[in-house]
Structure formats: C-alpha cells, structure tokens
Design brief:
This is FAD-binding domain-containing protein. By secondary structure, the protein is α+β, with helices and mostly antiparallel strands. It is built from ten helices and 14 strands. The chain is globular, with a radius of gyration of 22 Å.
Length: 335
Amino acid sequence: MTFHRAELMKVLYDGLCKEARLKILTSKTVTNIESQDSGVTVECSDETVYKGSIVIGADGTNSVVRKMVHRIATMNVPESLWGPLMPYKSEFDCLWCTCPPMVEPGHYFETQHQGRSVITLTGKKRNWLLLFEKRPEASRSRQKTSSDDLQQFAARFFSFPACPQFTVEDMFAQRTTAGLTRLDEGMTKHWFHGRMVLVGDACHKMTPNAGFGFNNGVQDAVVLCNGLQKLVLQGASSDVQSGQLRDVFAQYEASRQEQVRRDLSFSAHFTRIQAWDNWIYYLFARWIRPLKIAQRWSAEKISHYFSKASVLNYVPAKERFHGLLPWQNSTMSAS
C-alpha cells in the first residue's frame, strides 16, 4: 500500500508528548554552526542562537550542515583528501506529480523505453506519477525550473501508458502538485567532523526507483541513535567529550557505509534497467525480469534483505504483525 510521506510524519509527530513537540522548531534557516571541544553553537537567520552537544544534519541533498562540515574540515585538510563540497552527480531527471485517485489503491505500474521510464503508484487519497529521463550528460550543478519546463518535459511522455486505463497525458492533466528535479547519486567520503554528523540524503543520495533512499535515511538515524543511547547508558553527561562522540560517529559511519554502497549500486542498476540504458539492461528488463521465477527470486532476496533492518534497541514496542519471515533484530518487549 502506498501512502503520502507527510501522513507518516503526522503520525510520528502526533505520537510525541507535549514537551517533545515544543522542541520542534519550524521555519528556521541555519546560517552558521560553530563546533568546539565543549559543544556546538547554531546561529539562525532570525538571530536566534542555540547551544548543544551535537548537530545532526538530516537536512537533505543541499545540506547546510554538510557545507559547514566541509568548510571547517578543509581548513586543515586539503579538499582533494576530504572530498568535494557537492559529492553528487545527476544522470537522470525526474518529473513527479500527484493527482486525485484515478485507479484503485494498491497498484504499481511501470512503462519502459530507451532512456525513459514511467512509474505510477496508487494510494487511497492520491496517485503518484514519476517520469524518468536520462540526461544528455551528467551534471553536478543545480538549476531552477519553470512551469514551461514541466510542461515540455511531460509532453515527451504524453503517449506513454501510465496504467492500463490512462496515459501520462491523462494523469498529468489532473495533477494537483508537480515538480521537476535532477536525480542526484553518490555518497560523501566523510559523514562527520567534530560534533557534527550527517544522516540520509545529506551524506548519500540514490535514485528513487527502488525505494531505498528514505529507508536508508531511517536506518542511518536508527544506528546513530543506538550508538548515542549506548553512550548515555555508559554514564556520559551533557558535557560529553568530543573523543567519545568521535568513537560513536566513526562506528556509525563504518557500519552504514558498506550497506549504503550496496543500495546505491542496486538503485543505480534498477533505474538504468527500467530505462534500457544498454543492451544487457534491455534484455534483463524485457525477457528475464518478467518471468515468474525471477519475480519470486527477487521477492525472496529483498524480503531477507529487509528482515535484517536495524531497530531502536532501547525503545519498548509490541510487534503487531507477524509474517512468514521474522525480523532478525527484535525490539524490546513492551510491558
């Protein structure tokens, strides 16, 4: 079942106590971060200042925290060793749009073509349409897009079927929201410096076709929080030492980078298979992937893969659903 990510965020927010909600500050623009041995200071555009022990950069592809980490780190280390400020490159563009539910929920449709592909997802309250196109050449730069750009991009797909009942043109005409973006791919060499640490798209970015981007961001947060909780249980106080944090951050980085590399590779291949990027991808997409035995094999491999997901090992919870394949990392039993 497909659902809107904002609905998940609302469920998580509504589950917080009042005190926790008061700590969530919106409409803030970070302008500077100072990291010292004793703590961190964050300055915002509205002249507010916040002090704390660490800064976790979960601020996306154009991460301000990553820029601050890069600025501070390259004061003492050459950029050639640390890595570039913008570590991602884009080989594909993606137009996304939502529209009222035109197809019953619970379906996933693909349309494939050389250099292009279409994915349609159906939920209870809305449908999603994703149009992918390979760029003439890879790029690391950003650019703004206009409504004309959206229309011209979508028009190249109008004759493509979005699902058995409708074409891309049919669904695009009913759009309620839409956007055009370059699909960044890559991973930063370093995920932390001093008291600043990165998670999710701030330190790795993958194409969305396989659905691994958000999941990896969540896994980053889980592994990092488990490490920080362990540090707290060891008796660390609010004035935790930089060396202790460095050990936690280093363990987090080491444990996650190998997994992220695999998912980056899988996502890249999956996107290019759907766009028939070469004759091997074409043969696989057209003649192997549709086979039932191939689909069963893929489902089994992916199920075993997801069953290994990390969980918050200090949060008591009840497992409400039990499938054929159990989770390998169980939560604490709730009393």
